[in-house]
Task: inverse folding
């Protein structure tokens, strides 16, 4: 669901059409944030990624105040009369001379906390590049959408020319072999994200080893599970490029994610 009437523009609710006019032709950085009861989760982690991204692309070290942004998120959801349940919002930063901060695109989530999603989709690997050095930008959103069109009804999984799986759109990908969780390293082209950090913390809490290593398309047959993590929780793939997978340890990981979210702490 995405039917906001108002967009929060630098702390002020304005009608969606007026905001679109003011932002037309401008490029943004963004983070997708899970809220529960209108409370944004792991906001300091999100703003730190935005700060680093802005510095990487523009050379400017913008100071983002998580307390002020949390107040803005609460105002944004209240202005659009969204219920106090689990909702995803998109925080956009326009790193031009004005450095506008915009909140938009609320989506009501089906799950009250991080969970294993009910559907197990098939997936297909697609070779494509993430623009602008693995930064979450409107350019990367466009690249992910085009990759999904290419994948058709299956979920697109980004991979390199050498066949290393890297992500599902913005979201980190993981595989499990036995009890060991494997995820591609950032040095290989995986992007840092709050969901990546959260799954790493959940693996530690669940006493499951996490290994950073390439997940190669040619070696998918050795893995028991393949999944990605987003603001909803864990989506476990039924297959990828014809290789079939089970869904075994993801429930344990999702429960650990929910416990971390309840505590409010993510290092």
Result:
């Amino acid at each position: 669901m995405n039917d906001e009437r108002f967009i929060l523009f630098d702390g002020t609710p304005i009608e969606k059409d007026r905001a679109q006019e003011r932002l037309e032709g401008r490029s943004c950085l963004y983070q997708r944030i899970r809220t529960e009861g209108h409370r944004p989760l792991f906001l300091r982690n999100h703003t730190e990624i935005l700060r680093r991204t802005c510095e990487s692309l523009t050379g400017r070290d913008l100071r983002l105040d998580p307390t002020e942004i949390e107040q803005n998120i609460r105002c944004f959801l209240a202005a659009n009369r969204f219920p106090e349940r689990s909702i995803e919002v998109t925080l956009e930063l326009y790193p031009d001379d004005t450095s506008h901060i915009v909140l938009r695109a609320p989506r009501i989530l089906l799950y009250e906390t991080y969970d294993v999603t009910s559907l197990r989709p098939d997936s297909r690997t697609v070779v494509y590049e993430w623009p602008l050095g693995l930064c979450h930008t409107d350019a990367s959103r466009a690249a992910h959408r085009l990759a999904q069109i290419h994948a058709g009804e299956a979920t697109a999984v980004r991979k390199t020319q050498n066949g290393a799986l890297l992500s599902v759109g913005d979201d980190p990908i993981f595989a499990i072999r036995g009890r060991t969780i494997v995820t591609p390293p950032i040095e290989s082209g995986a992007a840092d994200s709050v969901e990546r950090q959260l799954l790493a913390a959940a693996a530690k809490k669940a006493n499951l080893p996490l290994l950073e290593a390439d997940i190669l398309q040619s070696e998918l047959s050795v893995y028991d599970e393949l999944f990605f993590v987003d603001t909803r929780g864990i989506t476990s793939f039924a297959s990828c490029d014809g290789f079939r997978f089970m869904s075994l340890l993801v429930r344990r990981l999702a429960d650990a994610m929910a416990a971390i979210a309840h505590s409010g702490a993510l290092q």
Q: What stands out?
A: The chain has seven helices and 18 strands. The first helix runs from residue 16 to 23.
